[in-house]
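Working notes for the structural subgroup meeting. M.R. asked for a predicted model of this chain before we commit to crystallization trials. I am recording the input and output together here so anyone reviewing the notebook later can reproduce the run.

Input as submitted:
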Amino acid sequence: MTYGKKLREHIAGPETTPLIGVHDMHSASIAAGHYEGMFVSGFGFAASHYGLPDIGFIAWPDMVAFVQRLRGAFPRHHLLVDIDDGYVDPEVACHVVERLERIGASGVILEDQKRPRRCGHAEGKQVLPLPEYLAKLEMVLATRQDMVVVARTDATDEHDILHRAEQLAATDADVVLVDGVRGVEWIRRIREVVGGKPLLFNQIAGGKSPRLSLPELSELGVEVAIYSTPCLFAAHEAMHSALTDLKAADGRLPAVDTANGAGVASVTRLLERNIARRRPEPQGVRT
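Returned structure, recorded in token form:
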């Protein structure tokens, strides 16, 4: 079974499918022990690989190389990849989709923002003319073999949000995402205009959208939830706290709880699992 088909079947299940944002191999190693699906977030990738905000700095070869490392370590997890606007040019977008599908990505998200782009929960977003975006989307859809394609709009005008969501739902895209949704009532309105097309909801700490549980999203008819930055923001807080404590202790490292804390042994055990996952499964065992 292809990775796209596996994700598509999961999305068709009765509950909302969660995909956890990962920004590097270590965060992915931790997320893999808790969830079946990962989301390669542009926000997290720009922050961790470049130390820059998510405003268009990502180079597609870097993203492809990262996804290839992820797939090597996590052969049975769903991997949904943020490819922004397809790196501007439709031909480049199609090339990236081909490369990602060949290395085992489960799906991609293609947005309708124009450059300079912004994080989906930031101010100042501008969108392409709808016909221009739809033409790019159709090229990507014609290129993919079985990969899941999420059509995303960053429209902010109320009429345009609903119009674009309806138009995106009429394509062969597998899922529709309206980013930066500001309330539950808007989720209901979008759910109505996209009809039976699966709907994706993006949650980011401190973003514009409400904090909703998976059961709440299921009740609203949302099939997929991406959590863009929980690993990145948790790492940010933990590292800041650890280094503040280290400075206050004049450079003396804290004692490590060998049973539950992060130390040489526990982190090595975590990373060794990434080697074990690459080994063939015993006959008769399926996951």
